[in-house]
Design a protein that fits this description.
heterotrimer, A mainly alpha, B alpha/beta, C mainly alpha, B: 15 strands, globular, C: two-stranded antiparallel ribbon, about 0% strand
Chain lengths: ~300, ~400, ~425
Amino acid sequence: MEILQQIVNGLTQGAIYALIALGYTMVYGVLRLINFAHGDVYMLGAFAGFYSAAWLGLTKRLDAEAPVYDFTHWLQVAVVFFIAMLACALVGAALERFAYRPLRQSPRLTALITAIGVSLVLENGAQAVFSPDPQPFPALIPPTNLIDKPDFNLSLVQVTIIGVAFLLMIGLQFIVTKTRMGRAMRAVSLDRNAASLMGINTDVVIAFTFALGSALAAAGGILNSVYQPTIDPLMGLMVGLKAFVAAVLGGIGSIPGAVLGGLLMSGAETAVVARGYSEYRDAIAFAILILVLLLRPAGLLGRTAPEKV
Amino acid sequence: MRKLGISAPIFSSLLLSAIATTALLSGCKEPPAESDLGTVRGASATPSSVDIAKAKPYEGSDIVIGEYGSMTGTTATFGKSTHNGIMMAVEEANAAGGVIGKQIKIEALDDQGLPEQAATVVKRLITQSNVLAVLGEVASSRSLAAAPICQKAGVPMISPTSTNPAVTQTGDYIFRTCFIDPFQGTVGAKFARQTLKAGSAAILTDVKNDYSVGLAKFFKEEFTKSGGKIVSEASYSEGDKDFRAQLTNIKGKNPGVIYIPGYYTEVGNIALQAKSLGMKQPLLGGDGWDSPKLAEIGKGAVQGAYFSTHYSPESKDPRVVKFVADFKKKYSETPDALAAVAYDAAKILFAAIKSAGGTDRDKIRDAIAATKNFPGVTGDITLDADRNAIKPAVILQVAGKSYKYVTTVKP
Amino acid sequence: MAATISQAAPDAPNFARLFWTRTLPLRLLACVASLGVLLGLQRLFEQRLNDYFLQILILAGINIILAVSLNLINGITGQFSLGHAGFMAVGAYVGGYVSILGSQRLALPPSLIFVLSLLMAATFAGIAGWIVGLPSLRLRGDYLAIVTLGFGEIIRVIWTTVDRIQLPRPFDGLNSILGSVQLGAARGFKDIPLWTNFAWTFALVILCVLSIRNLAESSLGRSMRAVREDEVAAEAAGINTTQVKVLAFVVSSMWAGIAGALGAHLIQYANPNTFNFMKSVEIVVMVVLGGLGSITGCAITAVLLKVLEEVLRTISGAFGVGLGVVFFAAVLSLPRHRAAIAQNALPGVTRWLFWPLLSGAALIFLFFFRRDWLEANVSSLRFVIYGLILIVLMLLRPQGLMGRAEFGWHLFRRRAPQETS
């Protein structure tokens, strides 16, 4: 049963990695840019959730002895998600407009350094504004166990996280494959110049991609904070890096790849820690990545693009 | 096309490097040049064998004290707590007319939580601001980088909470006001064996934190020595948020107690996740737990957990009551252990300046070394011959939003 | 200098030529002279300059080695490495280890032990570079960046777990000697002797700059630039691109190792957390801001960023730098708005000055009316300013400070500089 428990642990964490990895993979897909600030957008999402929950009076109510989880509660939780996702979508679009769009034509390294600059500004600005102390995140989802056996536990939070994450991913897949905007995104990622010649407004498409990825990161931020209820301005640092590795692992630019990468990464981490080598937790993610890239440079589900000469 | 080969420029640069090396070496052998290249005299690893100028004698109408700490980076919250504790001591001293009739100013610099930065900022404090004494750091890794500099310059340094024994071994100008790893680890193990009657224990260490690694090491030694068994040793890294994999593993081993010598930032999460996995073992930790945030984050899950620390904020001791009340008024939060110990460190320094009666650093050093039964908020503090604080540890139990006093363990 | 070299026949190496070039006596003279100057400066600085400035100077020197060596991979060979800090860590640990062990076991003068430990640091860092480079340099662009990042992190994690050297079975007889030095794992490696000083550091800076410049100007360097410009074309032209890239990587790692060892012998303490991902990023930033491919640019920004870091520590410094950034942003963005201004003066000027004026006003407001908040958060804010500098520079001067230009004697000669890339 211990192994089953570890699988559930890994699956939940993997779902969160996957949500963040999607933002990386989409932005990389359209712009070939590693958006290093994405982990910080995830952090901002968690803080937006934190403040909107306080604003709606949720935090205070949940601190009571026996909080009631009725219909209005769930409605409020939905509002919290909506506000945070909207806020982060705006932040993402603004970052694209002011920091990355002017660099569209310059070498990719330039844009990468800009992304690092944006990340520094967001992290340290957040430390100055929100204070570096960790804040306790309210239990938006009741901390009850659905299965409560001595050797196996499944909490409502875990089920919700996996459920919401997969719903969002299916929604994303729908947007990308079935809508006009999705088709435009795929066209831009295939060839930006050709897409713009076909009458696609690439600026709008790219801004939309940023907004969509950022909204997913915000959802990931809230879900993660409900699961592991502390938030602090540097929470996006390592998670961002790992989610990015997950995106590369699955094949960057590929949406199912990001999901697979996230799950694999978290599975490997869980396995290593469960075997008792927890100090190698951060190393194993990279070790797997290196192996995969050496054997299959485009990632697990990525397309191997032929070299253009 | 031609093959790669060693071409002339590479060869001549190799040659140049060989020549340069020989020149540098031969420079060392001649007596006048030796002191140029040669802070290397004696090859001793102890920095005191190197003579770099001592700091200028203190001058200035105010008393300027240097503080270095992590105001940014992953441990920013600890740097901030410490800074708050120190500022509170400074304000009190200044309101009471200052020390030896002079107002106290703190010059605080950020080391980003990096040893290299700590070394630089401490040099800056000593040479640019000519500070009278230095307060800092929370983490031993930074104190270890800064201590040799203070030692060389002859500037007294008091570290509030660096628990690695090596810090004060640097030299006779380096002090600390907290207990060292061996003591606290032993206290935890004794408590687990004697009071909790645990036969087996699991340890969950923060590998990025030398403090945590140190406590775990001495807990393990004492626990096994007194007949207990360590069934599982797991670890995590500062900043981690998911501990379920480690906990599930520990759960399978079913230990009698779980020792988590980490900081409250992670411990609250660990406790919550342990609870959701249905683990019922008592949790035990060190002074890194001591913060009002622990109960805020851990909520019901940390209830009943034990930790060793410096003092009990619930204590009816008037010193503690006043300190906690004043701190709440100034910063609108309950002080954590870091703030309390930093407050005491600053107080001890001021008392030493007072008893030295002037700004002679050597006299201040002697006065700090002579600290005996200093009435701090974290207990009566005496500094021993190794410049470490000797003071009792208390074991507290989390109860509601505050802590219940369990027992005092004397050194 | 480069002119004499390219004539060396590659197929049948003329060994005399390898040692003797017409300019050799001149070079030897320059070598001795620069050493004399360094030793003189060392003496002067130790008497006249306080410890703090000396420390900044030495750290700036170490930064130069790091930036110039990374430039060989990132700028000259065009491969994006994000793992430089890992090789620094190898150098710091190996260097410290050899120094401590050497002082205990070898009856040699300390300066010889220091040379030995620097050489060992370079060797091991080079080996690490080779191990990392050989498989990963087959990848390109961002993938290479991620793999090097991964290797850097793995190296760091390894140091957090090694407390003592413990060799397995057949070699375990050596453990009593090799294991006598405690590396400290997560607690950090302490008691490294203080051997780094101004003369050592800058002698190595000069060596580093010279060796990398000479390498870049050699036929190998031309191969490296060919790889940077177009790897496929380079391959087609018969260059063994993998070999060229691995060589650049190894040389660069060796210098990173030396820089790490210098740093460890300056701080007397090494902690694995120092060599994290952010440290690698910091070095990449130096290279990009200086101008990818420009050794001069990298060296300048390496020093500038170190100075900037110190200036930003105080509020007035941060304020000054902030206003300076706004001013330069305005100046740098003028060319983009020139046409608009010429066409229609007022709206053009408004568009040009809108952001600079707004941010300048915000800065002044914060400085004069929100002083308390600034005081309380000066350390966080200095990274905000640092980040903004990166963004502004990348937006307005993406080629970096120097572009690909170099400072050199050619600037003082009539002859037009010949850039052969």
